[in-house]
Amino acid sequence: MYLSVAEVADSLSISRQRVLSMVNAGQIPAQRIGRAWAIDARELDRRSALSRPLSRRMALVLSDAISGQSVRRLSSTERHYAQKYLALLAAM
Q1: Based on CB atoms within 10 Å of each CB, which residue in 7, 24, 34, 91 is the most buried?
Q2: What are phi and psi of 43, to 5 degrees?
Q3: Are 7 and 30 found together in one domain?
Q4: Start and end of every Helix-turn-helix domain (predicted)?
Q5: Which of 46, 44, 77, 72 is nearest to 59 (CA)?
């Protein structure tokens, strides 16, 4: 199964531009199909840790959430990513 740049960006919680940069740098193998890139989903399974490290603030928020403490005020974007990271941790 092949994924688009947008699908890969969403699954890794990074921008489309970052995915394209990684493709161009050879960090993510991809095939060009017309004007679009196709990225093998199996490759992402092998490279599940491609996203950037957590910011200090996000690491503290996740630490608080995991330990049951109230979390700091988050922007909608931070809340989205925090929920995504917590879901990934719960699935492990």
Answers
A1: 7
A2: -65, -35
A3: yes
A4: 2-46
A5: 72
Report if residue 51 sits inside a domain: no
pLDDT of residue 7: 94
How far apart are alpha carbons 81 and 54 in whole angstroms? 10
Domain region containing 20: 2-46
Residue whose structure tokens are 């699954």: 11
**Residues 67 and 39 placed together within one structural domain of the fold:** no
* Mean pLDDT of all residues in 18-44: 92
User: How confident is the model over 41-71, as pLDDT tens digits?
Assistant: 887 776 665 456 788 888 888 888 888 777 7
Claim to verify: residue 63 and residue 42 sit in the same structural domain: no
Domain count, the chain: 2
Tokens read off for 38 = 């196709």
The owner of tokens 């161009």 is 24
- CB-CB contact of 36 with 47 (8 Å): no
Distance CA 58, CA 82 (A): 7
